[in-house]
Specification:
- With 511 residues, this protein is mostly helical.
- It folds into two domains: 194 residues, Fumarase C, Chain B, domain 1; 264 residues, Fumarase C, Chain A, domain 2 (Up-down Bundle), CATH 1.20.200.10.
- It is 55% helix and 5% strand.
- It is built from 20 helices and nine strands.
- Helix 9 packs parallel to helix 15, helix 11 packs across helix 14 and helix 16 packs antiparallel against helix 17.
- It is elongated and about 90 Å long.
- The model has no long low-confidence stretch (mean pLDDT 95).
Length: 511
């Protein structure tokens, strides 16, 4: 299967497919004519005498230096090599593939002036599995993600490194093994490849997709915790949420109702329960998780727009003029990443409080201390809850906005930058933390529900409980738990826990 992309109208669902599956992508061939037209215009300028930024001039603070026509190709090669200053660990292959797909979409709009040869090489690399090695650090999110994208571009020219068949090697060797030839960059092509927000956007999209999976799982574990604590489902009544009107809140409440429908545990205490209200972590799930869902949906639209945007510089406009602007500035992505970080933090914070509730006999309505079969002899879930608190605290620290931390670079030519790249990159670690918090809630809630036997939970949550028990056995006595935590976290992060629920119950990213 190959996914055909139409630049300007690529959907969030298509981007998510690329992210999770690594499916090869190509541009709709109807866009070839516009790409070729812009490339011809750049070639015309390169042959002429009028200076145009990035085509026959230096870059950034060196833009006033005129480059001779015979040196244009050398200029582009030097640009790429000099900008390969990325440091840190390599980005994961699925992130790099998404970066390359986003670059295809941007170049495919026909405003960048690259030849079809560039497009075809990126498509072929994706198809044959030649993945540039891109270090994760070095971008400040303005003038494009220069350093990381330079490593991508370098691999296309046979410089730097790439992976092929799972092995890391010199990029020239990887291309040769795949039957591909390195490209020699023409006028502006190096600049078109490294100007742009594709690294920041790919990281933000990955954070978004991971956060949404965890958010869906959090509704499942939240419903399980509600039943384990014998909490009330009355606060999920649809009229309460329609009176407020927020779509995410309405959808979250509907999901919780659907998840708890038919629970014998719930029905057993509808009457005669002396408790009047549950703690907020049970009662206010729709308000908190729903607000986070609204935030993720809003961010999804921003990132979908950015994924389809032309973000390099200068641009070939519809009247054939070539104009310098600032579309490479990643402020929209930086702000989006900060909002995702807040949502991740809050989903984890309220879930952690449900974990704390279930292990505390003063709050859990009859459950044993730390959900241990023999408390005292066994510590049960005591330290699993502590781990969830540690991860929650880490996420709080990382949720500080990155977008407000501008610093001047490039001899003050780039005097306000977005910090989008590392603002988005931290989402991956935060999402991993969130998946583990939700995993710990899954383990505690499952244990709590089993303590309610012979009463049983709802049919939907029985399915979720079965998925959990397929990878984490009941805790009958203390055992080495690190492997259990990892298995449960994978269940959340892979989407398998949410996938145990019938279609149509859990809210999607599309409002």
């Amino acid at each position: 299967m190959t996914l055909i992309l139409r630049p300007g109208s690529v959907t969030l669902a298509e981007l998510e497919t690329i992210h999770w599956t690594g499916v090869p992508v190509v541009l709709d061939r109807s866009f070839d004519a516009g790409i070729e037209k812009a490339a011809a215009r750049i070639a015309e300028i390169a042959r002429g005498d009028d200076p145009v930024y990035g085509i026959n001039t230096g870059f950034g603070k060196l833009a006033s230096i005129r480059i001779a026509s015979g040196d244009v190709a050398t200029l582009q090669r030097n640009l790429i090599l000099s900008h390969c200053c990325g440091v840190g660990r390599p980005l994961a292959d699925n992130i790099v593939r998404l970066i390359m797909a986003l670059k295809l979409i941007s170049l495919g709009r026909g405003a960048s002036g690259v030849r079809l040869e560039i497009i075809r090489l990126i498509e072929a690399m994706l198809d044959r599995g030649v993945i540039p090695v891109i270090p994760e650090q070095g971008s400040v999110g303005a003038s494009g993600d220069l350093a990381p994208l330079a490593h991508m571009a370098a691999a296309m020219t046979g410089e730097g490194e790439a992976t092929f068949d799972g092995e890391r090697m010199p990029a020239r060797v990887a291309l040769d093994k795949a039957g591909l030839t390195p490209v020699v960059l023409a006028a502006k092509e190096g600049l078109a490849l490294i100007n742009g927000t594709q690294v920041s956007t790919a990281l933000a999209l990955s954070g978004l997709f991971r956060a949404h999976r965890a958010a869906q799982a959090a509704l499942v574990t939240g419903a399980m915790s509600t039943d384990a604590a014998m909490g009330s489902s009355a606060p999920f009544h649809p009229d309460i949420h329609s009176l407020r009107g927020h779509k995410g809140q309405i959808d979250a409440a509907a999901a919780l109702r659907g998840l708890l429908e038919g629970s014998v545990i719930r029905d057993s205490h509808i009457t005669g329960d002396e408790r009047v209200q549950d703690p907020y972590c049970i009662r206010c799930q729709p308000q908190v998780d729903g607000a986070c869902l609204d935030l993720l949906r809003s961010v999804a639209r921003t990132l979908e727009i950015e994924a389809n945007a032309v973000t390099d510089n200068p641009l070939v406009l519809s009247d054939d003029t070539v104009v310098s602007g600032g579309n490479f500035h990643a402020e929209p992505v930086a702000l989006a990443a900060d909002q995702i970080a807040i949502a991740i933090c809050e989903i984890g914070a309220i879930a952690q409080r449900r974990v704390a509730l279930l292990v505390d006999p003063a709050l859990s309505y009859g459950l044993p201390a730390f959900l241990a079969r023999k408390p005292g002899l066994n510590s049960g879930m005591m330290i699993a809850e502590v781990t969830s608190a540690a991860l929650m605290s880490e996420n709080k620290q990382m949720s500080h906005p990155a977008s407000v931390d501008s610093t001047p670079t490039s001899a003050n030519q780039e005097d306000h930058v977005s910090m989008a790249c590392h603002g988005a990159r931290r989402l991956l670690r935060m999402a991993d933390n969130l998946s583990m918090i939700i995993a710990i809630e899954a383990m505690t809630a499952a244990q709590g529900i089993e303590f309610r036997a012979p009463l049983v939970t709802s049919p939907e949550l029985v399915g979720a409980l079965s998925a959990i028990r397929a990878v984490v056995p009941t805790l009958d006595e203390d055992r080495y738990m690190a492997d259990d935590l990892e298995a449960a976290a994978l269940l959340v992060a892979s989407g398998a826990l949410a996938g145990a629920i019938s279609p149509g119950i859990l809210p999607t990213l599309e409002a």
